[in-house]
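Hello again,

I reread your note about wanting to compare the complex against the isolated chains. To keep things tidy I'm splitting this into two emails, and this first one only covers the full assembly. Below are the input lines as submitted, including protein chains and any nucleic acid or small-molecule components. They are followed by the predicted structure of everything together. The single-chain runs will come separately.
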Amino acid sequence: MRSTWRNHGAAIYAACALAFLHAPLAILILFSFNASRFTVWEGFSLRWYRVALEDPQLAEGLLNSLVIAGVSGVLSTVIGTLAAYAMWRRGARVLSGMLYLSLVTPEIVTGVSLLALFEGAFRFLQLRLGLHTVIIAHVAFSIAYVTIVISARLRSYDRTLEEAAMDLGASEWGAFARVTLPNLAPGIAAAGLLALVVSFDDYVITSLVAGVDSQTLPMVIYAMARRGVSPVVNAVSAFIVVAFGVVILLSERLQRR
Amino acid sequence: MNLRSAFLLPARVWSAVFLATPLAIVCAYSLLTRGDYGGVERPWTPENYTRLLDPLYLGILWRSLWMAGLATAVCAVAGFPLALFIARAGRRRNLLLQLVLLPFWTSFLVRTYAWLFILRDTGLVNTALLRLGVIRSPLPLLYNEGAVLLGLVYNFLPFFVLPLYATLERLDPALPEAAADLGATPLRTLRRVILPLAAPGIAAGCVLVFIPCLGAYLTPDLLGGGKTVMLGNLIQNQFTTARDWPFGSAASLVLMLVSAAPLWFLLRREAR
Amino acid sequence: MNRRHFFLAAGTAAGCARDARPRLNVYNWSAYIDPAMVARFEREHGVRIRYGTYESNEEMLAKVITGNSGWDVVFPTHSRLGPMARHELLTPLDHGRLPSLGNLSARFQKPGWDPELRWGVPYLWNATGIAYNRRQIPEPRGWDALWSPALRGRLTMLDDPEDVIGICLLKQGLAFDSTNRAELARAKAEAIRQKTLLRAYMNAEVRDQLVAGDVLAAQLWSTTAAQAIHSAPQLGFAYPAEGFPLYCDNAAILRESRRTELAHAFLEFLLEPVAAAANARVAESATTNQAARALLPDDPVLYPDDGIYARGLWPPALPAEAQRYRDRLWTEIKSA
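Full-complex prediction:
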């Protein structure tokens, strides 16, 4: 009896916490339908969605952002997972120090220093800033996030499982791929999601290392917001939230089956 | 080459070229002199560091540490039950985890502006309270340290929940049950069984929250009304308006050194 | 899917439409041009414009300072033009290729910061003044109106050291661009005195709060104020009696550009009255182009009459030492 009461309490708390996280979303979706350009309600309208759909910069920015988040998310998840696993087996102090240090670096400093590096190197290589530099930068700052999430999970992982597999004749690689990796899967998913979100949302570093042809969605949104937040931004955000919400629900359905 | 070094290679190469080299550049900048409009020039000088010893800047450092610590504490208290609930939610785990992250697919700026709309004088909260007759005139909810704290917690709560979830998810549900069967009170089970096992996740979460909070600058600007300076604002300002990159680099390195303390603690734990 | 596939996908998705037309890379402030005009230039000249935007002079400078940014045309504010030229970042303009320079208003034909228009073509300009709610407060005459206790909690200042310290100096009858430390100390004291009345230091974001009525008075740019007034007629904009700063952004060609001929053609296009008027309308800012003015509605907020304009001043670039001292004062004001 007490236990169910406690479960209800936990569920209510979780619902409140999620409501807290989603409150701003509700607001911005609501105001994407506002006829006024300001955050004063003047009536229902779809005009901002029309404006958003017709804006080529937004479409280009969204495409660039998705490509960057996808590529850098996968790269950093792979690199970070492998590194976290190797460090778990035996520490790699310099590397982990370096990764953690990257977390500590203020964004603007990461951005400025990467810009200095790229421009210094590119002068000799005849290269220019662009999508590739943004991806490189995003991987650089995402690896640490991935590593830290996976390491936290590995620390409560039972080493004997892997040892048992090797005792039973599995190779080093086999033990990793067949035993440890499946065990890490939820951690990898969480880490990968974090890397995706961090990349998709980044503005400061991106704006510094982006070049011709690599305007991302946050850059377009910042540009719009410079003149006060326009409901077009709300419309885009609402669209993204709904799109990702649908993807999440669909994948949930598929997993159920 | 054995498996371990093969696994480490990509991370090593990437971090040597794209993390260590830029860091070296920042170190060099911090010892140089400000150029006429944003450039960095010789002579070499330690002056950027001595400037930081000024009580003005030490006060800013202290305020930033305080705010970041407070935000981390709130995230820990608020995030722990949420992570625990998600970890025990069975098949709905993934869905809930995704829901925690869903707001973060929208731009940081847009999320923050949404809070402005909720908190301002003619915003949702004040309008509702006025209509209900609870208050006579709007409460000043915006542009104070409370609003900054709220913004920090809001933006970094998932950074606490995620690593903690990754740890708790592995926790064998039989353990707390066994403790309960043996007569332990729920509080005791939490303290003696769950917390020690969740410690790595909590530590990782705290680091992931504390560090970005320490360097945050947009939240204090937008929700604090720019009336207080945190270390992040100071650094941002040096690289933008003030165009003093050497001083900004020195301040950044100090910030990194300060945030390295909790990191060092984490690494020590890891080494054990 | 392996890594190579990802790079391939990324490459095709992003680098799409690699056409053979010559490209001109234009780096401008965000929301500062009519996209239809960009398209028209592309059509008329058979070229492709790659258009990027920035949010501050510093962001632009950080990229172009190494001389390898890839951009051809940028739009620095007037006070940055001289230093950029001295740093050999800009190409001197060839007036032979800019026959429409005569379209500029008289006051932008020989501007103080670049009298021969050697480095930049004035593009759009605006001023800092006071936006206020006409229904609730009287028209502010001078900057000291922003120290009125009646505004407590409903007043904002720009989040910009140059503008805030500058008007604290003007208020006391001192020069906006003073480098005298005693004068600056007095300005700092004024700013700290005002801070107790202040709701926030903020820039364009204040627009919404002016419209909603949360804020009664704000130190603001004429451009942002004009936008707010268009949708909330109860708002007004005042040009204070003690004087006020003016800012002008200029189209300039980078020295690194290898397409200076095309870049000149683009600058010439910006001077054309129809294009200039369209750009000013989209940016909701004041044009420097006399011929375009005739095509635009009259707006006393964006275009104050000559008597008011005469009180305006164009802030020059400050010497490094003064800049640094002011930055310290700004940190002190903000931490107070």
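For quick reference: The first helix of chain C runs from residue 3 to 14.

B.
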